[in-house]
Write a structure and sequence with these properties.
Helices cover 55% and strands 17% of the residues. The protein is of the alpha+beta class. A hairpin with a 5-residue loop joins strand 1 and strand 2. The radius of gyration is 22 Å and the shape is elongated.
């Protein structure tokens, strides 16, 4: 599996009764007749693993910004605006991270200890980056 997004064009030709009699996969443009139908599919882009990677990264970044920038500004400068600004997106990303971890548990065959580490990483600063490096990079 590569990280390149592959656009696959499947050409289907229907017979007089409406059944599919021709199925050819082409990776180039070509000339197509009017009786052919196309199915465009994006591979390796919207898989749950890739969505989890993006959510884990964003959750980690939002947590670091919240802990090391917004919270000190709130308590040292008396300006709670940044905590309010970053708090809601971080909360949504945190919940999405946990839900996606539950969805991916059977796919990765995580035992209780590994799954506990994945969930625990969401509340430890820089933890989601460690999980991405340790568990998710091995899928490619």
């Amino acid at each position: 599996m590569t990280n390149i997004i592959l656009l696959k064009i499947t050409m289907l030709k229907k017979n007089e009764n409406g059944g599919i009699i021709y199925n050819k996969t082409s990776y180039n443009r070509g000339i197509f007749g009017s009786s052919m139908y196309f199915c465009l599919k994006f591979y390796n882009m919207f898989s749950i693993v890739n969505i989890f990677r993006v959510v884990a990264f964003l959750e980690g970044v939002s947590y670091i910004l919240l802990l090391f920038i917004a919270t000190p500004i709130k308590y040292l400068a008396g300006d709670p605006q940044y905590v309010k600004l970053l708090g809601m997106p971080h909360g949504i990303l945190f919940m999405l991270y946990v839900v996606l971890a539950f969805m991916l548990k059977p796919d990765f065959n995580w035992n209780s200890k590994q799954f506990g580490g994945v969930i625990l990483a969401s509340i430890i600063p820089f933890g989601t980056f460690f999980i991405e490096k340790k568990y998710l990079k091995t899928t490619n």
